[in-house]
Structure formats: structure tokens, C-alpha cells
Design goal:
The complex is a heterodimer of chains A (805) and B (248). Chain A is α+β, with helices and mostly antiparallel strands. Chain A is built from 30 helices and 12 strands. In chain A, strands 7, 8, 9, 10 and 11 form a 5-stranded antiparallel sheet that branches. In chain A, helix 12 runs antiparallel to helix 29, helix 20 runs antiparallel to helix 25 and helix 28 packs antiparallel against helix 29. Chain A is elongated. Chain A starts with a helix and ends in a 12-residue tail after the last helix. The C terminus of chain A is likely disordered. With 248 residues, chain B is an alpha+beta fold. The radius of gyration of chain B is 25 Å and the shape is globular. In chain B, 27% of the residues are buried. Classes of the chains: A alpha+beta (805), B alpha+beta (248). The interface between A and B is large, with 53 and 49 residues.
């Protein structure tokens, strides 16, 4: 290849590198690893990005004393608000700090009711009814046995909160402070993100800032030792998951690089080719990542695990070229290239083809990973072929003995391995695997926990909140959407009817749906006149309450509610509560996405209900209103279904491709059968190892199968061809091709193996299974396959080689 | 300052005498206080034992609630019945506006005017709201002294000619958040319960004065039950998520 072409290719690589780096964006959202075609995932993603609760950091505080925890929560909230990290930190009901804001909220709630309900309130406030209304309140205060009711009415002489009490009953019935545990020693506070949208790095910096502030605050306030503070909520998850993934990607890539370099050194003991190989591997990685960024846009951090896999595979091409260079030192670079290029390109096309097939999977993270590795293998083949040998020619003189030295060093790897030993090992491994598998099969775990970090303090903190306070249960969630408030309100009513029927049928134990709080434009329009009239009644209402014994300070809520009705009556269009406390409350269940309004509900399935019953309810709601019903348990089931479908989508074409390739390669049934037997036996042993070690198939590693088949089939092809060439001399095959296959297998397994130490459970599982599978396939191909081959096809080479007898 | 030796000795002697006197006084007051405590505790225990032997009890009750938001107290009249070991019926208002009935395994709070019944199962006894409601109703009817002292700590006691008044504080921190202190007034003559008063953390109080008290009267057991008519709406306030959140 002429120099001009090389320069052009290098220029293209440099441009793509720059373009890719410019576009390089990392997404660490675990939800984006899930299949987009699932309505469950769609619902969860919508919930994740559209409701206030998903944009808040939750800080939990625990001490021995309720008063200390309360003091600490207040103090921390004040510290956060004084800093530039948060505009607001909510440590107790936002209405408690300002009853006036509750007044507006109550006024809105009444204003939003059907006209006959609002009119009913107006009747109670007519001149002749004021005194009886107040006497009724006093009687209730005198006789109620519910302390909360007495406290509530103490500041609400006209019973305006009765409505809120009724409509908030699902939440209010719990009668517990939603910010504190029953004994008060555990509290939570919410810190909303101070920016609208941000990438992972910005969120991580912010979470780090809050963590530092908390540490400094604990020392300053001398809370150390007696107070435990933990962080959770979406920002904490994003920060932790993202940091973990980034660390995984970098450490596994570096680990692979070190392992590959170590293996290369072990075999060839030459610094210059080793250093150049490392440089080229890094270049391959950068070009592939850049091309991936150009083609795919934002890359999910989990897919960046491709780096380790790619380096393991790309190193093979360097090793093959260098082996050729060592074996024939007198040949020119062009001769080396033309000798090895066909096999490298053929291998690159088939292996990248296997990885590209993974893009048929429904898991976006995995499809990105497949694409990146696929691209990377092609890039690696081109870069290695073009750039690896030229700088070495003339500078490196391997000498005649180097290859032999290498052979000598590797003789301990057992190149002399008798067929009897191979068959014994075959039966032993088969018996052991079958025994283990008959005892227990590897578990199947399609829960989404495998997509997050293995150790997750944020998850532990969330579980503690669930235990202590509740309200964050893994319930069924419902999102109703619409183009405007009116459409959402109508759909809410329709959903409510279905939910009521489901409660009656015993499918649901109950539900929480903010039907009464969601703005109803029609009702509001009709209520404007009544609101105006009510606002004018304030002076008389106040006088009457004072006369009946209420203090002036107990009328603050009443004042604010009447004033709000005055404002609502004068306002045009749909009325939403405008004060910050109400807005915070509304953000918990009202959201917006792509110009559509959303409302969130929570359902509780009855204990007797089956998944089929819930599926039926989901379908009924979706058909009638388009609303999405989702939950983690239903997500797992839905993923199982999708992955079963995926397995067909990926594995069937893979099987066809394999058979095609094997057929073309061997043109004999026995050759194809032996390759398939190698893969099948590897899978059996892998399953045995997995069952023995308690590993399970999960969302990520189930897709390792195509990778295993794709990469593993190569080994059996190489060994069988070599056996043909060497007339069945297995010892000679192991010394030549076997050694190269072992080295390639070791570098590839190292690439996957480093991922086993990833903090992300999915990546770790994928790395573990792939590394073990490849390692087993590699060993079986090199050590057992020759004995099988001799039994099935080697009759014509009756003369056994010296090493085999 | 130069002080003559004999003068210094005098001053030291005076100082020592004063210290001795103060010490003696402190010792005396401490022993008096402990004698008082011992006496009040003894009386409290005797009352608790006496209460444990009560088979039935009934009285008219005058309940006075003093709230921060009101310039004058709220007064209501009612009646209370007690049946060993822990069953009771409270009704407030005339006609009854609120009826509380402690059955074997649940508490019913009936609002006849609203046609509503609230059911609290004893299985919900961990809920703070439920505990508070029970504390309001049960404080005067302890089943035994062990349970009583596990719940309340005696802070002080005041004796008058006809009664002892005990100031108690909840032992559990969780309970202290809901109830600041409790006063129990007991007759010295016959150990009968004269009054209870609950002081809430916001300073509000609820005092029950018991009059027309009758020890071991014949009590119809049907009093401790309530037949819920069809017109009543029954709610289980402490059963999370079991309620339907239907807006009006």
C-alpha cells in the first residue's frame, strides 16, 4: 500500500477522531439501558424525567433523639439554603412554615371542585349560616377524639380543610409525618436540583458539593458520631452509577491493556513492538469511540465497556502480524501483510458480524456495545495491518531463535497431551457439569438491579426510607397524559371509574389519584362568580369567628384562602396554585413531556391479584384512556418476554451464520459437527461453572451467548484446519496454531475478564460469563478437540505422530 | 490584705459552719423529698392496685379543652363506663357526638351525627396516632402497675386534703412527641379517680373531671359494643392504601 493512501487514511482517522470527540457525550441513566419498545420502560422513563420527585436529592438523617434529628434537619436545610447549592431544602411540609400558602392551596382545591360542591361551601358562609357553621366547628373541637382534627380546626374555623382532608385521605390516612419516622429519630429532607437540565458530570459535581457541605456542616455543628447522614434519590443514583461506570470502563480498559502487554512480553520479550502495540491499541480505541459517537450520538456509559473487549480482540491482530514477522524475518512488510491480511480481514468481518448481530437486541446499552465493538474490530484490523509492522521493520531483529525460545517458554502449557488424557478429561468435565446441573441450573434473574452498581449506598438509603417512613413503596404507577388540562381531567375521570371497578373486583386494594387536585377548566370557569362573592365575605366571616372565641392569629389561613378566591375570580384561563409550597406539592404528581401534560397516580395491587390480572388491568386502562400502568415487577416480566423474543432475533441469525460459515469452511458434516460439539461442550461446562459458583443469567450476560459463539467458533476452525495441515499431529498443532490460539484467547478473555471487577452488576456479569466461556472454548479447542477430531476424522491418518502416542 | 491569724481562723470557722449548715439543709431537703416521693409512689401504687381490682366503673365526665387558638375553653359533657380488664365506652356530647368503644381487639370511634365509624385494630398499635387516641382514653384505667410504669414516669406529686395529683411523663420518646405530660388526680379517701389532664406539646390541655362516680355498678355488656347500621360509613384510618382516594 502506498504512503499516500496511508496518509489519507490517517487524515480520515484524525478527522473522525476530532469529530467524534466533539460529539462525545456519556449517558449514565440506567433506564436508558432498558428496551425502549416496552411500555413499562416508557412509563418508568417518563416518570423519571417528568416529575419533581425524580429531580430531588433525598438526604436522610438518623440519631438517637427525635429532637436532635429535627434540629439537625432544620439546621442542614438552612445551611443548604445559605449555600449556592440549593435554592430550597424541604425538611417538613412546606405549608407548615407558611400557613398562608396552605390558604391558597385550599382555596384552589375548593375552586377546582364541581360547582355544586363550591356552592355548598358558599351556603355555609352566608350571613345567617355563619354562626351555626362556627358552632359546629367548636362542637367538633370539643368532642373529637382525633388530636389532628382538633389541631386542624383550631386554625380553620370554617372547616375549609375538611375538603383537603377528604381528598387527601389516601395520603392523610397514614396519619404520619411524611418527613419523619414514627419515633422522630429518622428524618428526610428534599433538595431539588438547582438547574433544569444537566449531564452526568454536572450532577456529580453538584452531589459532591452537597456531600462536602454536609461533612463540613456535621463538623461545624458538632454532630459527628451521633448523627448518620445518607444521600439518595435520582441525583445520587445518577452520580453514583455514573461514577462507578466511568471507573469500571477506565479500570477495565487499563487492566486489559496491562494484561495484553504482559502476555505479549511473556511470549516475545521485546519492548519496541510491545510499546507500539499499546500505542496502536489506544489509537484503535479512540477512533472507535469517536466513530461510535458520530454514528450513535450519546453513548451509554455501560456500552463503554466495549473498550476492554475491543482491546482484547484487537491485540490478536497485532499478535498474528508479529508472529508472522518473527517466523519469517527476511520477508518485507508488504509480504507479511499480504500473507496475513486475508485471515485478519476474514476474521475481522466474521467477528464484527457477530457483534453487529447483537444490535438486534432490544437492550440499547448492549446494542451500543455491539456496534462499538463491531466498528472497533474493523478499525483495529485496518490500523494494525497498515501501521503495526512498518515502524518495526529494520529496527527489530527477532533472530532465528526467538520463536523457538517462545515455544520453549510455553512448553509448560502441555503441548504433549495424549488422546486418552483428552477423552478422560472430556468425560470427567461432562460428568461433573451434568452432575452439577442436575442438582441445580444457573438461576435466571431478569430484575433491573443487575443494571446498577453491585454495592449501592444510595439504594440502601432508599430502602431505609421505605422501612422507616414508607410512601416510596414499589407500587404500581400510573401516568395519564393529555394535550391540555381538560383532556387530562376527562381521562382522569375515566381512569378513576376503571380503578373503582378494580377495587370492587378485588384486583386493587386501593389507589391514589389526584383527580380532585388536577385543574378542571370547566368547573373553574363556572366557579368564578362564587369565588368572587366568597372573597367579599371575608370581613363578616372574620368578625363572626372572633366573636365565637377564635383568636386573630388563628384566622391567617382563612384570610389567605379568601384573598386567593379574589385572585382566582379575576384571573383568566386555567388556574394553577402559584405559591412555592403548592408548586412543590404539584410537582410530585404533575409533569410535562414533549408538550403533553402528565399526571401521576399510585395503585396498590391486592394480595390475591395475579400478574395476568394486572396485565388485563393495564390493557383495559391503556385501551380506554391511553394511560400507562407500570411497576418494577411488571417490568421484569415484560423484559423476560422481550428477551425471549430477542434471543430468537439474535441467536437464530447467529446460528444460521455459524452453520453457513462452518459449511463453507469445512465442506464436510464431520467438521461442522465437531465445531458445534466444541461450542456445545463449552456451553455445558460454562453452565456447570455458573451453577457451581451461583452465577445467574441476567439482562446483560444472556447476550454473552452470541459473543461466545462468534468468538469461540474461530478457535475450532483454526484447530481443525491445522489438524488437516499437520495430518492429525495434535502436538505439532498445539505448538504452532494452538499457541497462537491460546494467546489470542488469553487476550480476549482478559478483555472480558477485567469487566468482571466492574462495580456495575450488569457489566461485571457480562465480563465474568464471557471471559469464562471464552477461556473454556479456547481450552477445549486446543486440548480436547484434537482427540475428538482424531476419533471422528483421523482414521485416514492412522500413523500417529510421535507426540501423541 | 493582711488579716490577723485569729481573725482568719474565725472566718474559716464561720465558713465551715455555713457550709455544714447548707449541707445539712440539702441533706434534710433531699431526704424529705425522697420521703415525699416514696410516699407518693406508694400511694400511686396502691391506687394502681386498687384500679386493678375494679370490675366495673362509671361516671359522668366534664371535659374541658384549652386550646391556643381560642380565647375561652371548650367544655363538653359525657359519660364513661369501664369493664375489666380493658374495655370502656366514652361518649361525649348530648346527644352523643362522639362515642369511643374499646372492644377486645379493636377500638371503634363512632360519630353518630356524621354517620361514620372509625375502626382501629389492635394490630395497628404501633401507629403513633392510634397510641395517642388510646392514651387519651385509657390513662385513667391502667390494667396493672407494671404496664403503667412502663408507659409513664412519675415526675412529681402534690397532696391536698382530699386528693393526690400525680404529674406523669410518657417514657417512650415517640410518645413524648405527642404528649408532654399527664396529670392524674385520685381521691385520698377511697382511691377513686377524680380527674385526668393531658398536656400536649403545643401547650393545649384536655381535662376530664369525673363526677357521679360509681364503683362496680351493674353494667350492661351491650354498652361495649356498637351495632353499625347500614347508614354508617366505616373507615379503617390506619390501613395504608386500603382507602379509596375519590375526590368529591
Amino acid at each position: 500500500m502506498n504512503r499516500r493512501l496511508i496518509w489519507i487514511l490517517m487524515l480520515v482517522a484524525a478527522v473522525s477522531l476530532l469529530a467524534g470527540l466533539w460529539r462525545f457525550r456519556i449517558d449514565v441513566d440506567v433506564f436508558n439501558l432498558l428496551p425502549t419498545e416496552s411500555r413499562m420502560v416508557e412509563g418508568l422513563q417518563l416518570y423519571q424525567r417528568s416529575f419533581g420527585s425524580s429531580r430531588e436529592l433525598v438526604i436522610s438523617l438518623r440519631s438517637e433523639e427525635a429532637k436532635l434529628t429535627e434540629r439537625a434537619a432544620r439546621s442542614l436545610a438552612e445551611s443548604l439554603e445559605r449555600s449556592d447549592l440549593a435554592t430550597k431544602a424541604i425538611w417538613r411540609s412546606p405549608f407548615r412554615d407558611d400557613p398562608g400558602q396552605l390558604g391558597e392551596f385550599l382555596a384552589y382545591t375548593w375552586f377546582n371542585q364541581p360547582p355544586e360542591v363550591f356552592e355548598g361551601l358558599a351556603q355555609r358562609l352566608r350571613e345567617e349560616q355563619l354562626r351555626p357553621t362556627l358552632e359546629g366547628t367548636l362542637e367538633r373541637m370539643a368532642t373529637s377524639l382525633r388530636p389532628q382534627e382538633v389541631a386542624r380546626l383550631s386554625y380553620d374555623p370554617f372547616g375549609l380543610t375538611d375538603l383537603a382532608d377528604r381528598i387527601a385521605s389516601p395520603m392523610g390516612q397514614q396519619m404520619q409525618d411524611p418527613f419523619a419516622s414514627a419515633d422522630g429519630s429518622f428524618r428526610i429532607l428534599f433538595v431539588p436540583l438547582p438547574f433544569e437540565s444537566a449531564g452526568f458530570l454536572k450532577v456529580r459535581r453538584w452531589v459532591e458539593g452537597v456531600t462536602n457541605l454536609v461533612d463540613a456542616w456535621k463538623q461545624k455543628e458538632a454532630f459527628d458520631g451521633e448523627l448518620t447522614v445518607r444521600l439518595t434519590g435520582t441525583p445520587a443514583f445518577v452520580s453514583r452509577t455514573g461514577s462507578g461506570l466511568m471507573r469500571d470502563v477506565v479500570s477495565s480498559a487499563l487492566g486489559t491493556l496491562v494484561l495484553v502487554a504482559g502476555l505479549f512480553w511473556l511470549v516475545y520479550r521485546n519492548w519496541l513492538p510491545l510499546a507500539w502495540l499499546v500505542v496502536l491499541l489506544v489509537l484503535v480505541l479512540m477512533v472507535s469511540a469517536s466513530l461510535g459517537a458520530v454514528l450513535l450520538g450519546t453513548l451509554n456509559a455501560a456500552s463503554l465497556g466495549f473498550a476492554a473487549i475491543l482491546m482484547g480482540l484487537a491485540a490478536d491482530y497485532g499478535v498474528l502480524l508479529y508472529q508472522e514477522f518473527v517466523a519469517h524475518p527476511k520477508r518485507s512488510v508488504a509480504e507479511h501483510r499480504s500473507a496475513v491480511a486475508p485471515s485478519i480481514l476474514w476474521a475481522a468481518v466474521t467477528t464484527s458480524g457477530a457483534f453487529f448481530l447483537i444490535t438486534r437486541s432490544s437492550l440499547p446499552g448492549l446494542t451500543q456495545l455491539g456496534t462499538l465493538v463491531g466498528i472497533g474490530i474493523l478499525v483495529a484490523a485496518v490500523i494494525m495491518l497498515l501501521a503495526f509492522l512498518p515502524p518495526l521493520a529494520g529496527k527489530v531483529h527477532p533472530g532465528r531463535s526467538l520463536a523457538q525460545q517462545a515455544g520453549g517458554r510455553l512448553s509448560a502449557l502441555g503441548f504433549r497431551f495424549s488422546p486418552l488424557a483428552a477423552w478422560s478429561l472430556t468425560f470427567l468435565a461432562a460428568a461433573a457439569s451434568v452432575s452439577v446441573l442436575s442438582y441445580r441450573l444457573p438461576a435466571v434473574d431478569f430484575s433491573t438491579k443487575n443494571l446498577g452498581p453491585k454495592d449501592n449506598p444510595s439504594m440502601e438509603a432508599l430502602e431505609e426510607i421505605q422501612r422507616e417512613i414508607g410512601g416510596f413503596d414499589d407500587a404500581l404507577w400510573l401516568i395519564v397524559d393529555g394535550a391540555d388540562e381538560g383532556e387530562v381531567a376527562r381521562r382522569l375521570e375515566a381512569v378513576k371509574a376503571i380503578l373503582d371497578a378494580s377495587v370492587k373486583e378485588g384486583v386493587l386494594a386501593g389507589y391514589r389519584l389526584p383527580v380532585a387536585l388536577w385543574p378542571r377548566p370547566d368547573a373553574q370557569q363556572e366557579n368564578r362568580e362564587t369565588a368572587s362573592w366568597l372573597a367579599s365575605r371575608l370581613p363578616e366571616a372574620r368578625d363572626a369567628a372572633l366573636t365565637e372565641g377564635f383568636t386573630d392569629s388563628s384566622l391567617q389561613l382563612t384570610d389567605q384562602a379568601f384573598a386567593a378566591w379574589g385572585r382566582f375570580a379575576a384571573r383568566e384561563g386555567v388556574v394553577w396554585p402559584s405559591n412555592p409550597a403548592s408548586q412543590w406539592v404539584f410537582r410530585q404528581f404533575a409533569g410535562q413531556d414533549a408538550g403533553r401534560l402528565l399526571v401521576l397516580g399510585q395503585l396498590e395491587a391486592s394480595e390475591a391479584v395475579t400478574q395476568a390480572g394486572l396485565r388485563h388491568l393495564t390493557a383495559t386502562i391503556a385501551d380506554a384512556t391511553g394511560a400507562r400502568l407500570f411497576s418494577w415487577s411488571m417490568l421484569t416480566e415484560s423484559l423476560l418476554k422481550i428477551l425471549k423474543h430477542d434471543a430468537k432475533k439474535v441467536l437464530l441469525p447467529m446460528a444460521v451464520l455459524l452453520l453457513l460459515l462452518l459449511g463453507i469452511a469445512f465442506r464436510s458434516f464431520a467438521g461442522v459437527a465437531l465445531s458445534l460439539a466444541t461450542l456445545g461442550f463449552s456451553l455445558l461446562c460454562l453452565m456447570g461453572v455458573m451453577a457451581l459458583l451461583g452465577w445467574s443469567w441476567n439482562l446483560m450476560n444472556v447476550m454473552a451467548l452470541p459473543l461466545l459463539f462468534g468468538a469461540g467458533v474461530d478457535y475450532s476452525i483454526h484447530i481443525q484446519f491445522a489438524l488437516e495441515r499437520h495430518r492429525g499431529d495434535a502436538s505439532e498443532v498445539r505448538k504452532t496454531v494452538g499457541r497462537a490460539v491460546l494467546l489470542c484467547g488469553a487476550t480476549t478473555a482478559a478483555g472480558f475478564g477485567t469487566l468482571a471487577f466492574a462495580s456495575n452488576a450488569g457489566l461485571a456479569g457480562l465480563g465474568r460469563v464471557c471471559a469464562t466461556g471464552l477461556f473454556l472454548t479456547n481450552l477445549i479447542s486446543v486440548y480436547l478437540l484434537p482427540a475428538w477430531w482424531r476419533t471422528l476424522r483421523g482414521a485416514r491418518y492412522s500413523e500417529s505422530s510421535p507426540g501423541e502416542s | 490584705m493582711n488579716v490577723p491569724d485569729n481573725h482568719r481562723c474565725f472566718l474559716l470557722a464561720e465558713k465551715a459552719r455555713s457550709l455544714l449548715l447548707i449541707g445539712l439543709l440539702l441533706l434534710l431537703s433531699a431526704s424529705r423529698s425522697s420521703a415525699e416521693t416514696a410516699s407518693s409512689e406508694e400511694f400511686l401504687k396502691t391506687w394502681l392496685e386498687q384500679q386493678g381490682r375494679v370490675k366495673t366503673w362509671s361516671a359522668d365526665v366534664v371535659q374541658v379543652r384549652k386550646l391556643k387558638s381560642l380565647t375561652r375553653p371548650l367544655k363538653s359533657r359525657g359519660r364513661v363506663w369501664f369493664l375489666q380488664p380493658n374495655r370502656f365506652r366514652w361518649q361525649l356530647g348530648d346527644p352523643p357526638r362522639t362515642i369511643a368503644i374499646r372492644k377486645k381487639d379493636e377500638l371503634l370511634i363512632v360519630y353518630p351525627k356524621l354517620k361514620q365509624v372509625e375502626r382501629y385494630s389492635t394490630g395497628d398499635a404501633v401507629d403513633p396516632a392510634w397510641k395517642q387516641v388510646l392514651a387519651l382514653l385509657e390513662v385513667g384505667f391502667p390494667s396493672d402497675s407494671e404496664t403503667f410504669f412502663a408507659r409513664y414516669k412519675l415526675v412529681s406529686a402534690t397532696q391536698s386534703k382530699k386528693s393526690w395529683e400525680f404529674l406523669l411523663r410518657p417514657v417512650a420518646k415517640e410518645a413524648q412527641r405527642l404528649l408532654e405530660e399527664i396529670r392524674v388526680k385520685v381521691s385520698t379517701r377511697d382511691f377513686s379517680l377524680l380527674a385526668t389532664e393531658l398536656v400536649f406539646p403545643d401547650g393545649s390541655t384536655m381535662r376530664n373531671e369525673f363526677i357521679h362516680r360509681r364503683l362496680n355498678p351493674a353494667v350492661d355488656e351491650t354498652l361495649f359494643d356498637f351495632e353499625i347500621g347500614e347508614e354508617y360509613r366505616v373507615v379503617n384510618p390506619l390501613q395504608k392504601g386500603k382507602q379509596q382516594p375519590s375526590g368529591p
